[in-house]
Amino acid sequence: MSGPIFRAGLAALLMGSLAGCATITRGTTDVLVVNSTPGGAQVKLSDGQECTSTPCSFKLPRKSELNVLVSKPRCKPQQVRVTNKVAGSGGAAMAGNVIFGGIIGAGVDAGTGAMLELVPNPVEVELECS
After folding, report:
1. Strands across the sheet with 123-126, in order?
2. How far is it, in rounded angstroms, from Cα 56 to Cα 34?
3. Do the record's keywords include Signal (predicted)?
């Protein structure tokens, strides 16, 4: 079984196993950390998630774009926009996909957002309190 059809099939199988490299190595979610000074502030995300006291963290899709509202009694609320960008390691995984995994692997990673990271992360907020 070492004919050209076998070798072509083996090559296709190996290339297919590389599809979605960033999806496999980095995953499709990231942990967003929110800190405030002073601590103990309430955090509400525009997607509905919240926590009652900073510091806190949220597991989010890497391709998320949302607003983070940090508030505390007797303090001026602060809102921060969290977006995403291609991570250094995500870009390398995408380049590997293009070279070895082809268009399918690149499409999987682009579709899942695995090559992205949330920014800013961590979210650091300094509240103005009276």
Report:
1. 56-61, 29-37, 123-126
2. 5
3. yes
pLDDT greater at residue 119 or residue 1: 119
The residues, any chain, with a CB within 8 Å of residue 51's CB and separated by 6 or more, are 34, 42, 43, 58
Interstrand relation of 78-86 and 66-71 (parallel, antiparallel or unpaired): antiparallel
What integer pLDDT is reported at residue 3 of this predicted model?
A: 67
Could you give phi then psi for residue 49, rounded to 5 degrees?
-75, 150
Report domain extents, the chain. Answer: 19-129
pLDDT tens per residue, range 97-106:
555 555 555 5
47 and 40 Cβ atoms separated by less than 8 Å: no
* Residues whose CB is less than 8 angstroms from the CB of residue 120 and which lie 6 or more positions away in sequence, other chains included: 80, 82
The whole-number pLDDT of residue 114 equals: 73
- Tell me how far apart the alpha carbons of residues 45 and 12 are, in angstroms, rounded to a whole number: 43
Least confident of 5-9, 41-45, 126-130: 5-9
Q: What is the CATH number of domain 19-129?
A: 2.60.40
* CB contact at 8 A, 116 and 90: yes
